[in-house]
Amino acid sequence: MRTRAMSGSLLVLMYHGLHEGPRDRGRFDLRYSVHPDSFERQMQCLRARIGHTWLPGDRATDGDQVMVSFDDGDVSNAEVALPVLERLGLRAMFFVTSGFVGQPGMLARDQVRQLAQAGMGIGSHGLSHRFLNTLDAATLREELCFSRAELESIAGRRVDTLALPGGRGGRRELAAARAAGYRLVFGSEPGRNRRLSPHALVQRVPITRDVTADDFDEILAWQGSTVWRMRWRHRLLSLPKQVLGDERYDRLRQVLVG
Fold it and tell me: What is the domain range of residue 43?
């Protein structure tokens, strides 16, 4: 895939699980588990404001586009998100960690297939969710190739998009992804995309539990104090990641959030 300039822009929203609380099915996270009611209101807002959602492979259209994405493969993606999306006539990209499929709280094989058959996008989120920038070259190839092959076998379709676990990766990981057959690689730096290229990470905006209706409006417009706070938070968090390293930073976060 060559660099593709866009007539407008592409805003990619990044979700994880949808849970009312820790007792719900799935893997609850204090920050990243969005309340199902909030998700439905956000999708209704998106439907009213934009009218549709974009997926890789869609024909270029005029104007700004929005893509909805989910990471990891929480069971709520099929049980909660899919019914809402279908009811509103929207589509989303589900980046599934293939090694998580069938584990407690995660999508089963038939649920991944259900998402694909419903017209949703299926992408890779690695084999084990290990940060790709911490792996040696051989293990990196295994993560990329085995995950892609397994998801293609489950979904019955080509899988050529990748979301970096934890958003961690750079030039080496991009080159390895291209060699493994991925056309687009998504990161987790908040931003709005003006062009898509296999040589650069696609920026995504994390939608967290504390995002209010007003926040979501500002995110869709990509302006206002919500956008400013997101970008500065990302920059500030990059400092302890650099000091501690990706793995130690993630272990510390898991302790802090329980």
Answer: 4-222
